[in-house]
Amino acid sequence: MSWTNERVELLKKLWSDGLSASQIAGELGGVTRNAVIGKVHRLGLSGRAKTSNSSAKPRRPRTSTASPGNSPKRAPQQPQSIGATALKADIDQAPVVAVKPNLERLPELVVPISQRASILTLTERTCKWPIGDPATDDFYFCGRQSDAGVPYCAHHCKIAYQPVADRRRERKSIARAS
């Protein structure tokens, strides 16, 4: 499809009449909405007349009519304060309970030098518990035998995995003691 002079004139007329790009494309036939928008842009057409269904009507502010079935939503009421007490909160705060975990110290495991592992010697059946500071030369992994599917030996599993029920029970007992 090419833009003939007649089609361009019809486009200008329909555009000034306030038709949408889709409506103009339908009137012209053989052209898409995007082609109409592109041609309007290239022609520099702007000031459009308002169509009857897109004319702006002044809006009236809503009036609050509170009927039993149609009550407006209100924010929950906040405590009112007057005068210099505006910043004072009279809300009783729940006491803050500091949870102190019961860290039973297991005896430190001494890993023989022959069982210590480096990152290069770890396998799926060796304990991957890090010991020491990784930035130092004496850093190593435990390296002891671990069960299949578990990354740590039995000793380090006791440290790494704590049953959820035990932790909850401990928190409740600390809260009751306070």
From TrEMBL:
Gene3D superfamilies, per the entry: Homeodomain-like
Family matches, as InterPro entries: GcrA
Origin: domain of life: Bacteria
Region (Disordered), start-end ranges: 43-83
Name under which the protein is recorded: GcrA cell cycle regulator
A Pfam family annotated for this UniProt entry: GcrA
Native source species: Roseibium album
